[in-house]
Every structure is written in C-alpha cells, then in structure tokens.
Design goal:
With about 230 residues, the chain is mostly helical. Helix content is about 75%, strand content about 0%. The longest helix is centred in the middle third of the chain and has 28 residues, at about 65-90. The chain is globular, with a radius of gyration of 17 Å. It starts with a helix and ends with a helix.
C-alpha cells in the first residue's frame, strides 16, 4: 500500500504541475495522463489490468473518443485566445489548486483500490457501473471541505526545495506522448519529488486527514449506492 500510495502522490504532484507548463492545450492532457497512470498502477496492484479499457470513463475528463475530440476541436480557438489569461489565473490560484489536485489524484486511486479490495467490481464491469463511479466521485468531492487537507499539503510541500521544478519537467515530458499511459519510469520521481511524496505521506497520517478521507469514502459509498439502486 505504501508503494501504491507513493505512486498516487507522485502522479498527483506531476498533475498539479501541469498548470505551470507554458504550452497551449496540454494541461488537461497531462492531468488525464496522470489519472490514467493512477488507475493503471492500482489495477496492476490487484492483478486486474484487464479493466483498463472499461474504466476509462472513471478517470477521463472527456465524454468519449468521438465526443471528446469534437469538443476539443470546437473549443480550440477560444482556448488558444484565452491561453495567456488561463495561465495567469492558474498561477495565481496555484496555492489552492496544487494541493487540491494532489488530493483529487490520491482519492481517485484510493477509491478504486477500495472497490477492488472489497470486490465491488466483479469480473465484468458495465458502462453504467463505471459512470456511476465517476458521478459518485465527483459528487463526493464537490461536497467536501478540504481546507485542512490543503493546508497540510501546502505545509508538507513547502519544506522541500525543487519539487515544483522537477514536477514541471516531468509534466512537460509527458506532453510529447499524449496517447499512451505513462510508464513507471516516466513518473519515477527524482530526489525532490520523492522527498515531497514522503512528506505528503506523513501528512496523510494526521488524524484530521484520516478522518477527512474516511468522510469522503462514506460520501462516495452513499452516492454510489444511490446510483446502483436507481
């Protein structure tokens, strides 16, 4: 579990650094790659890599290949025009956005890990089940107050020099191969990244964060049960 948690955190740090990459259109792509990596590593840990394709909708930000590509093309001109403004906003909101993206990435892996461990996901997984997972995750995440967790993450990351530059370099390297799930080598943290991940792991052991993550688990389970019944 420590190895898997470490992978989630590293992916979260790289995903959070996507906002600092000065290349149009790649920030969302990098985040998708990092989330895909989290799902892939979690499935491998449970010997369930056969579910990678079925679980795409759980972690992907688009609505499917055709719809996602068409949507991206339609929004491309506007996104290009607004790119400088979006980057300025991303920089000014990084104090909140960086720890929140790390938290989201960790919870994405944690939730899937729980569902696999508790055998909620069987040998076959339906599209409806995956969409219920995604919707339940988003609902639970939106209802949470993560201020305590954000502060703990910020404090943990503030004690390590150079992690942001390393994470930005790793994020930039992912932008060159956008179609594949990043390999473990690509998200193999350097000294600064690994030190940051260890600090975040320590923060997650704080009683307040343990309680907060348990609350998220409960909110997800309730939302998922409602959708499963429906």
């Amino acid at each position: 579990m420590n190895w898997l948690l470490h992978q989630w955190i590293v992916a979260g740090l790289v995903s959070s650094a996507a906002r600092f990459v000065p290349i149009p259109f790649v920030d969302d792509v990098i985040q998708d790659q990092c989330r895909r990596y989290v799902v892939a590593r979690t499935l491998e840990a449970h010997a369930r890599s056969d579910l990678k394709k079925e679980l795409r909708a759980y972690h992907s930000s688009d609505a499917g290949c055709v719809a996602g590509c068409l949507g991206m093309l339609a929004k491309a001109p506007l996104k290009l025009i607004l790119f400088p403004i979006r980057k300025i906003v991303a920089l000014f909101t990084s104090v909140r956005g960086v720890p929140l993206e790390v938290i989201r990435t960790i919870l994405l892996g944690r939730t899937l890990d729980r569902m696999l461990r508790d055998e909620v996901l069987g040998k076959t997984v339906s599209t409806q089940q995956v969409l219920a997972m995604r919707e339940s995750f988003n609902i639970a995440f939106a209802k949470m107050d993560f201020r305590v967790a954000r502060a703990a993450m910020s404090d943990a990351l503030a004690n390590v020099q150079g992690w942001k530059e390393s994470a930005k370099d790793m994020a930039t390297s992912l932008s060159g191969d956008q179609s594949q799930t990043p390999s473990e080598d690509q998200l193999q943290g350097d000294k600064a990244i690994n030190a940051s991940a260890e600090r975040v792991e320590e923060a997650l052991r704080q009683p307040e964060l343990v309680k907060l993550f348990a609350e998220f688990d409960q909110r997800f389970d309730e939302a998922y049960q409602d959708r499963s019944i429906a």
